[in-house]
């Protein structure tokens, strides 16, 4: 089946806005008709590429697989910091920004600024996407979305929308919108098709991830959080296809680096051309490997510096603390106590030791409830997700693909005899 551009169907808009509160100019902006899109079904669609682009995405796959394999040798939690960078960048695409320090504080303190809490929840959603060992399903989608919004917008968390949403224009009616996703009555039908496609095993994983992501954005099944949920699901699809075994990649850093090209590719997809989004996701993966390689090199140097500065017995719990800090760059005595199974007093003493050794810096007033920050980690995350950091990271790139030596680019998840069984399980 050939992939086609979206079609449209017309609806009448019934505004619930109290027009008595609007100006004459605002009233004129309310358009009583709008066109909602009808995307092309993709479960059985064909997505072929020319040889040049096919070679390009094969190279990207090799880079991702080799990078993931390299991370097995690390004693500290590289996946956690990759996930933190991915979540921060994915949120930036939605114009949600906060420092790495404030995001880490939000994971400990519900009174942190709202943007920080939203991005912290995005980290949780990414963890959910990667930790649940399952095929793509409606339950998985809902669970990721629920984790994303349950603390900041519980009323819609995990719930498929039952109203019209739109992108661009104004908040008065969808008639002036840049893009109007499908009417809510079609959502479950399109998600059924999307789930069946996302569990296909006969496509290159990058094509699968790219097309799946663009279609999810087109369907827009939730009132809010579609972009962040869709990018989390893209990570899950790549993991399901064996690309990620030990970590994830901050692909959103690459997309953020070329944000206009990313948005343009999504628009081209809706116009019937899937090639641009495949290119952008492929480039995003390559860029993510560059960023990841840079981060690993810097963390190695940082860990060596910490270890050389720590003057404590090998049995001291301060040595266990430094591995925890890569995953949790802001900690307090309560967190350390629970994580290392220590008394609050012992945990506080260890934090003070780490401070004296130059590993941690205190945040706020000095007391037993104070928080401590591993500034080396938070500074690194802020750097790689900034424009300057992205440019610098391009210079570090040491995993080189050799396509002729890599004939089997990704593991086949199921044998042929099981493929029919797999497809029947994905039908909703």
Structure write-up:
By secondary structure, this protein is mostly helical. The protein has a domain at 7-290: Fic-like fold, CATH 1.10.3290. It is 54% helix and 5% strand. It is built from 18 helices and five strands. The protein has helices spanning 24-29, 51-70, 78-93, 100-106, 114-131, 138-149, 187-198, 205-219, 226-240, 251-257, 259-270, 275-309, 318-327, 333-340, 344-356, 375-384, 387-393, 416-425; strands spanning 7-12, 33-38, 330-332, 361-363, 371-373. The strands form two sheets. Strands 3-5-4 form a three-stranded antiparallel beta sheet. Strand 4 (361-363) and strand 5 (371-373) form a beta hairpin. Helix 4 (100-106) packs across helix 5 (114-131), helix 5 (114-131) runs parallel beside helix 9 and helix 6 (138-149) crosses helix 9. Residues 393-428 have low confidence and may be disordered.
The CATH homologous superfamily of the domain at 7-290: Fido-like domain
Distance from first to last alpha carbon: 21 Å
CATH class category name of the domain at 7-290: Mainly Alpha
Rg is 23 Å
Annotated CATH topology of the domain at 7-290: Fic-like fold
The SSE string, one letter per element, is: EHEHHHHHHHHHHHHEHHEEHHH
A few lines on this structure:
This protein is mainly α and 428 residues long.
Question: What characteristics describe this protein?
Answer:
428 residues; mainly alpha; Fic-like fold; two-stranded antiparallel sheet; 18 helices; 5 strands; 5% strand; globular; disordered C terminus
Topology, please?
Blueprint (H helix, E strand, L loop, with lengths): L6 E6 L11 H6 L3 E6 L12 H20 L7 H16 L6 H7 L7 H18 L6 H12 L37 H12 L6 H15 L6 H15 L10 H7 L1 H12 L4 H35 L8 H10 L2 E3 H8 L3 H13 L4 E3 L7 E3 L1 H10 L2 H7 L22 H10 L3
Antiparallel strand pairs: 1-2, 3-5, 4-5
Helix pairs in contact: 2-12, 3-5, 3-10, 4-5, 5-6, 5-9, 6-9, 7-8, 8-9, 8-12, 10-12, 11-12, 12-16, 14-15
């Amino acid at each position: 089946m050939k992939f086609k551009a979206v079609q449209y169907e017309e609806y009448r808009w019934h505004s619930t806005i109290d027009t008595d509160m609007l100006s004459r100019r605002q009233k004129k902006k309310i358009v009583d008709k709008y066109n909602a899109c009808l995307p092309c079904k993709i479960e059985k669609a064909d997505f072929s590429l020319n040889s040049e682009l096919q070679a390009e995405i094969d190279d990207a796959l090799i880079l991702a697989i080799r990078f993931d394999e390299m991370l097995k040798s690390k004693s500290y939690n590289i996946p956690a910091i990759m996930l933190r960078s991915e979540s921060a960048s994915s949120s930036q695409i939605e114009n949600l920004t906060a420092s790495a320090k404030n995001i880490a504080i939000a994971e400990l303190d519900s009174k942190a600024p709202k943007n920080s809490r939203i991005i912290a929840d995005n980290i949780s959603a990414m963890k959910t996407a990667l930790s649940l060992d399952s095929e793509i399903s409606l339950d998985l989608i809902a669970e990721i979305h629920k984790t994303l919004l349950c603390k900041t917008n519980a009323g819609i968390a995990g719930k498929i929308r039952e109203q019209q949403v739109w992108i661009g224009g104004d908040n008065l009616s969808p008639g002036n919108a840049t893009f109007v996703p499908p009417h809510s009555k079609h959502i479950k039908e399109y998600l059924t098709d999307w789930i069946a496609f996302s569990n296909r095993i006969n496509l290159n994983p990058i094509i699968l991830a790219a097309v799946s992501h663009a279609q999810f954005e087109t369907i827009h099944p939730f009132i809010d959080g579609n972009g962040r949920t869709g990018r989390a699901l893209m990570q899950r699809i790549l993991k399901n296809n064996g690309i990620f075994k030990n970590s994830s990649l901050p692909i959103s850093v690459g997309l953020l680096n070329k944000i206009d090209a990313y948005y343009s590719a999504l628009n081209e997809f809706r116009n019937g051309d899937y090639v641009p989004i495949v290119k952008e996701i492929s480039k995003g993966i390559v860029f993510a490997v560059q960023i990841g390689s840079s981060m690993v090199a810097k963390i190695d140097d940082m860990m060596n510096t910490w270890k050389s500065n720590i003057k404590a017995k090998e049995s001291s719990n301060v040595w266990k603390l430094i591995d925890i800090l890569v995953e949790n760059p802001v900690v307090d005595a309560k967190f350390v106590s629970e994580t290392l199974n220590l008394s609050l007093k012992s945990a506080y003493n260890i934090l003070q030791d780490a401070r004296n050794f130059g590993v941690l810096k205190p945040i706020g007033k000095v007391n037993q409830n104070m928080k401590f920050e591993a500034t080396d980690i938070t500074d690194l995350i802020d750097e790689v997700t900034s424009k300057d950091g992205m440019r610098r990271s391009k210079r570090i790139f040491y995993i080189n693909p050799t396509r002729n030596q890599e004939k089997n680019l990704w593991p086949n998840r199921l044998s042929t005899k099981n493929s029919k069984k797999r497809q029947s399980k994905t039908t909703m």
